[in-house]
Amino acid sequence: MRVHAYAAPAAAEPLVPTVIERRDVGPGDVLIEIKYAGVCHSDIHTVNGDWGPQPYPLVPGHEIVGVVTQVGAAVTRHRVGDRVGVGCMVGSCGRCANCRNGDEQYCLEGMVPTYAGTDRDGTTTQGGYSTHVVVDAGFVLSVPEGIDLAAAAPLLCAGITTYSPLRRWGAGPGKKVAVVGLGGLGHLAVKIAHAMGAEVTVLSQSLKKQEDGLRLGADHYHATGDPGTFARLAGRFDLIVNTVSAGIDVDAYLGLLALDGTLVNVGAPAEPLSLNVFSLIGARRSYAGSMIGGIAETQEMLDFCAAHGIGADIELIPADRINEAYGRVLASDVRYRFVIDTATLG
């Protein structure tokens, strides 16, 4: 099946219209007509080669929502016409301890990423900046009717990336949670943490998005550009979720944690971060990382968001504005996620 798409021809080059081939629908596969695809900062890092060499030409996109148009003979969970989504992975070994425990994202043999990975047939996976995709049914999520389909797209990466650590580290009533950065990830972290019942604080470079942060559910908003912020908030938080993809002063943020508090990195900067171990041992603090979630947890997140009326704040764009959108993401000029209307790809 040949479908329209947008691809990066080489590192740091503008994306261009193209046509790609999708595999035939096998017994366990689902064919999805993609309706919307979110633009993730990871897409930009990948196509720019920030995280190493990539298999160009490359079609990005791992925040995918659409409608099922065909299912394989062995598929029972999804039906033609269902609203579905696909996130950051489209396969894993299914046999290792992590896969068996529902942590397919940490597959010991390596999960298959939605783009720039090697699929089961040896071909390179191509992502959601396209009109259709064929995916193993086990990696297809159901999108509840309670979420607008376009606003649901970013939940497949940004949503689960923030939901997973909030859930794992116990965000809820009586917990003080800080979110570093109010961007594509951060704005969803605020919504989700608020819905979980936590006391939520946004830590952003300036106060220019303060009104938005409070509207989204934050109880407090502080500017990290003000050196006094770190003194005033010292030892305050049970959990800090760092969503930014740039370097931070890790020691300064660890100093904001209470006894037994945890700083979790979900943003993925291109350069290494460092810390002083005394920032940890002085108050039995932890510094952790987290990457998306397993399939069952991602479905749980979608159901949670539907129950609480949570979707991303989006700017819907046609395909011919993808390169412009990339520039605006790098300039932090989006509130808060670009979503491509894939009907404009044809």
Automatic annotation (TrEMBL):
Cofactor(s) the protein requires to work: Zn(2+)
UniProt domain Enoyl reductase (ER): residue ranges: 10-340
Catalysis: reaction(s): a primary alcohol + NADP(+) = an aldehyde + NADPH + H(+)
Leading EC class: oxidoreductase
InterPro entries: ADH-like_C, ADH-like_N, ADH_Zn_CS, CAD-like, ER, GroES-like_sf, NAD(P)-bd_dom_sf
Any Pfam family: ADH_zinc_N
Record keywords, A-Z: Metal-binding, Oxidoreductase, Zinc
Source superkingdom: Bacteria
EC number(s) given by UniProt: 1.1.1.2
UniProt key word Oxidoreductase: yes
UniProt-recorded Gene Ontology molecular function terms: alcohol dehydrogenase (NADP+) activity; zinc ion binding
Family: Belongs to the zinc-containing alcohol dehydrogenase family.
Protein name (record): alcohol dehydrogenase (NADP(+))
Organism: Streptosporangium becharense
